[in-house]
TrEMBL record:
Keyword Nucleotide-binding included in the entry's annotation: yes
UniProt name for this protein: Thymidylate kinase
CDD domains per UniProt: TMPK
A GO term for molecular function: dTMP kinase activity
Length: 213
């Protein structure tokens, strides 16, 4: 069939956006919704700070360590690679994964520092491609107003403006965009509709694909 000839599987749904765009709130609500429908679903996030690579990233983000920009880029990528095989097993066993940040954050944040975009994309090649990327769109100034930023390294308005620009270069027609300035419940509803279709198509056996596709 056109929808694919593989086995039924879970969907890989990625949420992207600036810091304070509401991704974490929305991914939590989406998890509750999909579980409520009886779908096996897990919420993941990158960076995954629980691994040893993740601890190096966490220490860098809290400015407890300094690292060369290229080095930290590769650590973020390694942090996704170390979860790749588990990710594939989960999807193939029918579990849908909602992922709070993925390779697009990797490219957007590092290219915002001035690193070459193709260099930034290279280490992500071969990771599993999301079935859907939802971008929660918020002007950097609005995000900064939301209870302010924490004190992590990237949570500065000037830098977030650059990240916003990088995301604009990166996203294509396959991304779904949601206006993140709407009321929480409106965003939640729109997300539910988008993701329900995606989950259905993956259940029908849409084949897995790989970055960058
Ligand atoms: P979070 O835990 O979602 O708040 O992410 C921590 C910070 O790290 C946030 O400012 C976004 C940034 N970030 C997430 N993924 C990557 C990545 O792959 N590369 C870089 N350079 N930064 C990232
Ligand atoms: Na953050
Ligand atoms: Na977040």
């Amino acid at each position: 069939s056109r929808s694919g000839n593989g086995d039924s599987r879970g969907a890989l749904v990625v949420l992207e956006g600036l810091d304070r765009c509401g991704k974490s709130t929305q991914s939590g609500r989406l998890l509750t919704y999909l579980k409520g429908l009886g779908h096996s679903t897990e919420l993941w996030r990158f960076p995954d700070r629980t691994t040893s690579v993740g601890q190096m990233i966490s220490s860098y983000l809290s400015s407890q360590s300094q690292l060369d920009d290229h080095t930290v880029h590769l650590l973020f990528s390694a942090n996704r690679w170390e979860k790749r095989s588990l990710m594939e097993r989960k999807l193939k066993s029918g579990t849908t994964l909602i992922v709070d940040r993925y390779s697009y954050s990797g490219v957007a944040f590092s290219s915002a520092k001035g690193l070459d975009i193709d260099w930034c994309k290279a280490p992500e090649i071969g990771l599993l491609a999301p079935d859907m990327v939802v971008y929660l769109n918020i002007p950097p100034e609005k995000a900064a107003e939301r209870g302010g930023y924490g004190d992590e390294r990237y949570e500065k308005l000037e830098f977030q403006r650059k990240v916003s620009h990088s995301y604009q270069v990166l996203h294509d027609a396959s991304w779904k965009m949601i206006d993140a300035c709407q009321p929480i419940e409106d965003i939640e509803k729109q997300l539910q509709e988008m993701v329900s279709d995606c989950v259905r198509i993956c259940q029908k056996g849409k084949p897995l694909s790989f970055l960058w596709s």
